[in-house]
Amino acid sequence: MAALLSSLLILSFFSLGTSLSSNYYQKTCPNAESIIKKAVIDATKNDKTAPAALVRMHFHDCFIRGCDGSVLINSKGKNTAEKDGPPNKSLHAFYVIDNAKKALESACPGVVSCADILAVAARDATVVSGGPSWDVPKGRKDGRISRASETSQLPAPTFNISQLQQSWSQRGLSMEDLVALSGGHTLGFSHCSSFNNRIHNFNSTFDIDPSLQPSFAATLRRVCPARNNAKKAGVTMDPSSTTFDNTYYKLILQNKVVFSSDNALLNSPKTKSLVSKFASSSDAFFKAFAKSMIKMSSITGGQEIRKDCRVVN
Ligand code: HEM
Ligand SMILES: *[C@@H]1O[C@H](CO)[C@@H](O)[C@H](O)[C@H]1NC(C)=O
Ligand SMILES: *[C@@H]1O[C@H](CO)[C@@H](O)[C@H](O)[C@H]1NC(C)=O
Ligand SMILES: *[C@@H]1O[C@H](CO)[C@@H](O)[C@H](O)[C@H]1NC(C)=O
Fold this sequence. Notes:
- By secondary structure, the protein is an all-alpha fold.
- 45% of the residues lie in helices and 2% in strands.
- It has 13 helices and two strands; from the N terminus they run H-H-H-H-H-H-H-E-H-H-E-H-H-H-H.
- The protein has a two-stranded antiparallel sheet.
- Helix 2 (32-46) packs antiparallel against helix 4, helix 7 packs across helix 13 (282-296) and helix 10 (247-253) packs across helix 12.
- The longest helix has 15 residues, at 32-46.
- Protoporphyrin IX containing FE binds at residues 49, 52-53, 55-56, 59, 89-90, 155-157, 159, 164, 181-182, 184-185, 187-191, 194, 259, 261.
- Substrate binds at residue 155.
- Ca(2+) 1 binds at residues 61, 66, 68, 70, 82.
């Protein structure tokens, strides 16, 4: 009962208010989307890791206080912000949002929220990597609160299927959304610390997680030879880590995915059948990804249009 009540509370807390629309800036800032797209394309020319960073940043934003740009705020004084909280290592490319915001402030000052910039940039990052496109509903407001301690609300890479389900359903997201959006792991990089649990002292019986394909596990151990290894070491989550494709699902079926939470998608009949479906049809994956991104990015939460995405007004 308490759990039910608290999930209802979280749900209403995250989704109250703001209604979004695709043509939100049509009159007030008609070039908003092309300005954001340019910032993403320009960044990607010099920094192949920017698209992955933007897709992940939007996910983190939406899972904490709704998609309100809280992930973009800098720590200040005594307040340590989300971006400086524990799972912060792979959050980067904040400069892309700054560049877009700067251009938007000169085209239409005070109009486009940072939360919207991030939602649009995540879509553009997907497209620039070869993934699907979709209309991004807009009209989000920016939040004024960002706390490092709240990053503990993010799902952890050690989560099993029931923990994942709980984390997602608290935000009104389904198991289909979970499987489709986990496909974001077709892009980007993971540090050893995010999967060390599987390759050193897994449990009292096994040193290495037996659900890892053995030669893949050996590769991970070569890169990450000890539990507390070099902070920078890690692996790409998919060999085609700058191309948005359905390889991730094929890797799940081969037991060659880095996180326990990725492998966990095989542990319920429903999620397992979706993994097989997306592994055999990139079209089905692309459609589902676009649909679920719209759903996740419609969890709103803020109050203002920030002038500087790193600082509350
Ligand atoms: C299902 C729950 C999820 C968990 C537990 C999870 C966990 C993680 C972890 C641990 C990393 C690596 C961090 C590091 O070591 O540097 C990572 C990277 C990443 N995640 Fe997820 N993630 C989840 C869902 C998502 C979703 C929904 C998306 C987007 C749709 C996403 C997109 C990414 C991307 C693109 C990266 C690579 C970032 C980069 O290279 O900069 N993840 N994720
Ligand atoms: C990440 O968080 C840790 C604290 O958990 C902090 O010491 C570190 O400076 C942060 N790193 C970045 C890049 O913000
Ligand atoms: C998942 O993990 C939680 C917390 O460790 C545990 O209570 C639960 O039994 C696990 N569920 C499954 C299906 O393994
Ligand atoms: C260790 O993990 C394996 C595979 O997940 C499991 O079957 C086994 O029960 C676990 N052993 C202990 C002692 O937890």
